[in-house]
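Slide 14.
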Amino acid sequence: MKFRDYYEVLGVAKDASQDEIRKAFRKLARKYHPDVAAEKSTAEEKFKEINEAYEVLSDPEKRKKYDTLGANWNQPGGGAAYPDGGFGRQYQTAGGAGQEWHFEGTGFSDFFENFFGGGAKGGFPGQATGRPADHRPRRGGDAESEILVTLYEAMHGAERVLVVQSPDGGRQEITIRIPKGVTDGKLIRAPGLGNPGIHGGEPGDLFLHVRLERHPDYRVAGHDLYYDLRISPWEAVLGATVPVRTPHGEMKIKVPPGTERGTEFRLGGKGLPIGKSGNHGNLFAVIDVVSPPSATAEEQKHWEALAAASNFNPR
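Slide 15: predicted structure.
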């Protein structure tokens, strides 16, 4: 399994700040998102790679584990799987044996799955030395992993085909239903797909922790979406009617004169679905006043004339 250099994927230094990581992700995401990419045949895989890198580096706990892991993860003394699941999906069960699962189709790479995915929990009960054998039916332990869900899947619901390889090497293809309106951190339960029971006990369940795929335009908070609405300085001063992209289609809002950076405009019902209620969360358009990167000689004259005529002092 090849080591994934997430810093290289995002093009940032290993000591990059969270703000630098976020900016790098958004720049790459806007280039490779399948909706806008020029080379759509390769964009989807590239976008997943970018999302995976951001999923790890934007999470302080995952980033710390990743930095500890290092590129020598498969060498002696490297970041092999730990009994408590600190790295990888190998968990120590009550019986003392590790239970390692493998999942295909979650949206994450094998590298991510191996070191940041779920695993088996519970497992089979062991028998303490000197005690009589317990032949009562026992339920098998649960298995768990993470699943990367796109914003489109969260908006409309979807089905996903997963291949589950159990610790004994058995492979099973299953169809998982992703409910409409699912939010980040929710659990999708697949009954009976965990560890088999013993002595006739029922099998455990498979739990998939939902991770919403990061989007270049929207930040997700529950069922609400936040969208950075970029406007020019003159639009902020004079006011303007500007378009806003929402998952429900394009809308136009009026930006009043004198609008400041950070001002939020609420678009009711333009967020993610709220379960089966038929209702939706809100979309908040957050104003970002963007200055031109350069000015022509003619534009420079106008800016200088404005500076001379204005008595405004922002400090």
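Speaker note: The first strand starts at residue 91 and ends at 92.
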